[in-house]
Specification:
The structure is a homodimer of 319-residue chains. With 319 residues, chain A is of the alpha+beta class. The first copy, chain A, has 2 domains: 168 residues, Ribosomal Protein S5, domain 2, CATH 3.30.230.10; 137 residues, Alpha-Beta Plaits (2-Layer Sandwich). Chain A is 37% helix and 26% strand. In chain A, the strands form 3 sheets. In chain A, strands 1, 4, 5, 6, 7, 8, 9 and 14 form an 8-stranded mixed sheet that branches. Chain A is globular and about 60 Å long. The two termini of chain A are 14 Å apart. The interface between A and B is medium-sized, with 31 and 31 residues.
Chain lengths: 319, 319
């Protein structure tokens, strides 16, 4: 095989990931739980080539982002004793570096693509653990629907895997409204931000300890399709993470004014009986959990914002 | 004496107060430290009358706010065996209920006024402890400059007093720019909000524990007039408190879009070398610590916002 085309969707964490227990192996301090979104992600062509290269949206990239990708390809080569080089041609339907999980879908596509191109014959579980080495949350985009990323306890990370939850059910009426507020790249990357939080936030340990019990509760809510519980737990985890960011020294504030405007709209809507819940990552954009039947009311409320409405998406795949 | 006129300034907490260890006696879970501001506050005329009444800005008030004031007058009557009733005529230079400490200056004025009107002969320390029973942070407005409100450890609250710090020095070049973002009354009062936070935030205990060590550090910074340390500690305490609000269930967000706009302006200004620091209370308005020589640069930055610039203010006084 000299060329493959792959596709991976972004995923949004409902139970958040913020902080590593191992920087080299990308092992998290806590387990997280995400939803893979349909229609937002990365399509990537990987071709054997005389040297490694990266194009994003037809532009050759040589910056820090490219280095991260090329380092990952080198890692895969060294892990599996490969000598081939790869030309990457990536097309993204999400803006890069704006807290819209672009690196999750990109490294997920890259991992599944290299597995195919180099005929590594890795299982989905192994591909997910490989993707994790490029960008932690990328392991969750290998799978579809609701995905649990286990933190694991082993030093070598061999138990820090990703599993799809309740694959036999599919919450077809669930929607995520992704409100795009700014597509400017953030000043402090997630990788750097979480390091600073772990080092300086006096609330970090208390957050990790208090967030962990949300995970089994959320699994029950997903299995039973209990929307209000799902939403409430999602906001708890989200604002817990942002609380640790705010108490980082110096403070980490990824929000813009429109972020708070949308948040206040959601809280006000909920007070009038419209069930919708917010989650925000390391960027200004707001993702809103809502059930299909309430989408029109939410659209009316947010008519002067830019948004995309997503359903549950499939895992990464070779096309 | 049948009538007195008194005046009290607002105060802004640099080390925050959020949560009570005793709801009846208004005893806080932690000590706090504030700065009394010149020019923003309450002027109040108290007159003996046939019944208790309250006017704010010439309007007779009979709502919840009035009840709070009348309850306080009754408390003072019962504590000191007084039978007289009082007509209150209050003029405020700060909007009510918008996190601009209007109740601090109001109850501070009320306490010092009743002390004079009823000839209670209380010392300033006793007046401060009395003011605390109306609104916790009011005890800090009795005094000028930098004020420490000791949490105390006794059940009867007799050691939860307010003291002026370093009264022999006066940080004359310090300014607080009060950016007025909304004067609408907040939906969740401070009293209710802090109760909900104490009950539901999993980060509350960790915040209290991590915030307490900031206090002695700030006292040193004030004594030495070390502006950068003062500002950094101020932001730490502020964002720690807001972290506990955000992790309240349901989340407590007192910010509006303009709050974040101003915060991001401050962070950006600081990155370019302009020393200024933010603090926010239970409302959307932002107070900015800055030294006199940097005020013009800050004014240029915030030219399309409404603001007032304050210096250190005196304590409450009988005029």
């Amino acid at each position: 095989m000299t060329s493959v085309i792959v596709k991976a969707n972004v995923n949004i964490a409902l139970i958040k990931y913020w902080g590593k227990r191992d920087e080299t192996l990308f092992l998290p301090t806590k387990s997280s739980l995400s939803i893979t979104l349909d229609g937002l992600g990365t399509t990537m062509t990987l071709s054997k080539s005389s040297e490694d290269s990266l194009k994003i949206d037809k532009q050759t990239i040589t910056d820090e982002k490219a280095e991260k990708v090329l380092r990952f390809i080198s890692l895969v080569r060294s892990l599996y004793g490969i000598s081939d080089h790869v030309a990457i041609d990536s097309q993204s339907t999400v803006p890069v570096g704006a807290g819209l999980a672009s690196s999750a879908s990109a490294f997920s596509a890259l991992a599944i693509g290299l597995n195919a191109l180099f005929s590594l014959n890795l299982s989905p579980r192994e591909v997910a653990m490989l993707a994790r080495r490029g960008s932690g949350s990328a392991c969750r985009s290998i799978l579809g629907g609701f995905v649990l990323w286990n933190k694991g306890i082993l030093d070598d990370g061999s138990d820090s895997d990703a599993v799809q939850l309740f694959p036999e059910t599919w919450w077809a009426s669930l929607r995520v409204m992704v409100v795009s507020i700014s597509t400017k790249e953030k000043i402090v990357s997630s990788r750097q931000g979480m390091q600073e939080t772990q080092k300086t936030s006096p609330l970090y340990a208390a957050w990790v300890a208090s967030d962990e019990p949300l995970l089994p509760k959320m699994q029950v809510a997903i299995e039973r399709k209990e929307f209000l519980t799902l939403g409430m737990l999602t906001e708890q985890s989200c604002f817990g993470m942002h609380a640790t960011m705010l108490t980082t020294n110096p403070p980490l504030l990824y929000w813009l004014s429109e972020t708070v405007e949308v948040l206040n709209s959601i809280f006000a809507a909920r007070a009038t009986g419209l069930p919708c819940f917010a989650t925000i990552d390391a960027g200004p954009n707001v993702k809103i959990l809502v059930e299909q039947q309430h989408v029109p009311a939410l659209q009316a409320l947010l008519h002067n914002h830019h948004y995309t409405i997503c359903s549950l998406g499939e895992g990464a795949q070779v096309l």
